[in-house]
């Protein structure tokens, strides 16, 4: 029987599927993480087929499994659809519109997850708020975030990531945000976007959705790209260090932790680097716009502590380590270097790993970073990976993590102030075990 474009072994409309979801409001896509009473969606990937695990999911406690290959049918327990992923996405749209929660979507080249966590911390002081878990910000993660909206949820913060044109437009169509924010436009995923102009075009797809649907835009009014693109748009809320048309928020110092000022308040964060200023500023802006008491805004930001290898400060064996190894691109790498240069510390040491997804710009961008190290006056730097290995500079280079591990085992560092930064694939947090 056909219903709303899907074939089922038993009749079920999208409305009926949503009703079933409300009765069992837990979604699982991984049989290793099955929760009793959940709905299992059999998704597919290059190296796996979730349909083959449907019966296992049911055995582990899933109340139903949504499959798209009928040979894996389990009588009375499976719902057969044309495409399990598309069904998950359409169910999330249905639930988003069923809910009364306001949706805030955000994207950008750098700082998305930290910004999302700060906004969540601030808005949670007044509202029932949910947010994307970790960085589950793709075509699967965004639907799962929307489906985590509870009956009492008032605010839903949805992080959206992309590395190609069209992805943000697609995710915006799923999340249908009431408000949106772009952290910045940087040199990230240049290979997929086709250069910096491609990044600006791709990330601006969120603006395109908001403007086309007469929704509200949050902005960094000191960012010339944002200011230009939103010049004639009236539904905008922003922050600036100097423009009185917007909320005035200023950085005070970063030595090493960032401090910011607004409304005669001084906020002492646990975040390293001035590059985190805009992340804090937009959280303050949203807090003020949504009438969160300013003292609660201050408390929320001061209590936030970065995790998951994002600008963490670690004291270990006499070292003071800034671990910023979650990801890297040329923009975030330069920001980290400039910030590290500005902070006080004895015997500064850099461990920098390759930046991925730069395509034809990889050699040029790695060479620029290697030259910047010297221009900023850093004497000790260790460069790790194939791309840094091809650069011309006087710093020691290591093709692999095994090489730098062996070197440090034989040449342990004296107590130092250390920055560790590289792309996720480099997994440079492993250096902590050696240091």
Written description of the protein model:
The protein is globular. A 7-stranded parallel β-sheet has the order 10-11-9-12-13-14-15, with helices on both faces. Strands 19-20-24-21-22-23 form a 6-stranded mixed β-sheet. The model is unreliable at 1-10 (pLDDT under 50). The protein has 17 helices and 24 strands. With 435 residues, the chain is α/β, with parallel strands linked by helices. It folds into 3 domains: 2-82, 3-Layer(aba) Sandwich (Udp-n-acetylmuramoylalanyl-d-glutamate--2,6- Diaminopimelate Ligase, Chain: A, domain 1); 99-303, Mur-like, catalytic domain (UDP-N-acetylmuramoyl-L-alanine:D-glutamate ligase, 3-Layer(aba) Sandwich); 312-434, Mur ligase, C-terminal domain (Protein-Tyrosine Phosphatase, Chain A, Alpha-Beta Complex), CATH 3.90.190. The longest helix is centred in the N-terminal third of the chain and has 15 residues, at 84-98. GO terms for molecular function: ATP binding; UDP-N-acetylmuramoyl-tripeptide-D-alanyl-D-alanine ligase activity; UDP-N-acetylmuramoylalanyl-D-glutamyl-2,6-diaminopimelate-D-alanyl-D-alanine ligase activity. It comes from Flagellimonas lutaonensis. Pathway: Cell wall biogenesis; peptidoglycan biosynthesis. Its EC number is 6.3.2.10. Residues 27-71 form the Mur ligase N-terminal catalytic domain.
């Amino acid at each position: 029987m056909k219903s709303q474009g899907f074939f089922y072994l038993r009749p079920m409309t999208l409305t009926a599927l949503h009703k079933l979801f409300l009765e069992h409001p837990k979604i699982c896509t991984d049989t290793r993480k099955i929760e009793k009473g959940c709905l299992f969606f059999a998704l597919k990937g290059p190296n796996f087929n979730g349909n083959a695990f449907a019966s296992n999911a049911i055995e582990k406690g899933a109340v139903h499994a949504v499959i798209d290959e009928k040979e894996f049918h389990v009588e009375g327990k499976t719902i057969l659809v044309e495409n399990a992923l598309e069904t998950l996405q359409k169910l999330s749209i249905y639930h988003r519109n069923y809910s009364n929660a306001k949706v805030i979507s955000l994207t950008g080249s750098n700082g998305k997850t930290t910004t999302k966590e700060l906004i969540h911390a601030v808005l949670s002081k007044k509202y029932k708020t949910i947010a994307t878990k970790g960085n589950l910000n793709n075509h699967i993660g965004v639907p799962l975030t929307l489906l985590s909206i509870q009956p009492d949820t008032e605010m839903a913060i949805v992080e959206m990531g992309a590395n190609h044109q069209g992805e943000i437009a697609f995710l915006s169509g799923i999340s249908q945000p009431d408000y949106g924010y772009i952290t910045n436009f940087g040199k990230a995923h240049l290979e997929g976007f086709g250069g910096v102009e491609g990044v600006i075009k791709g990330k601006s797809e969120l603006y395109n959705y908001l403007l086309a649907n007469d929704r509200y835009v949050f902005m960094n009014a000191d960012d010339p790209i944002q200011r230009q693109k939103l010049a004639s748009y009236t539904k905008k809320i922003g922050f600036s260090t100097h423009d009185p048309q917007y909320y005035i928020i200023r950085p005070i110092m970063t030595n090493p932790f960032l401090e910011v000022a607004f409304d005669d308040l001084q906020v002492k964060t646990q975040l390293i680097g001035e590059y985190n200023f805009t992340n804090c500023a937009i959280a303050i802006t949203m807090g003020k716009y949504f009438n969160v008491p300013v003292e609660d805004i201050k408390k929320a930001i001061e209590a936030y502590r970065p995790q998951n290898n994002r600008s963490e400060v670690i004291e270990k064996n006499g070292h003071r380590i800034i671990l910023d190894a979650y990801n890297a691109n040329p923009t975030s790498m330069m920001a980290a270097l400039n910030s590290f240069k500005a902070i006080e510390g004895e015997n500064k040491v850099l461990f920098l790993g390759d930046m991925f997804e730069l395509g034809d710009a990889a050699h040029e961008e790695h060479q620029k970073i290697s030259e910047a190290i010297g221009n900023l006056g850093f004497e000790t730097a260790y460069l790790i990976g194939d791309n840094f290995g091809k650069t011309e500079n006087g710093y020691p280079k290591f093709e692999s993590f095994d090489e730098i591990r062996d070197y440090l085992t034989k040449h342990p560092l004296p107590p130092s102030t250390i920055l560790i930064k590289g792309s996720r694939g480099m997994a440079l947090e492993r250096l902590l075990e050696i240091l």
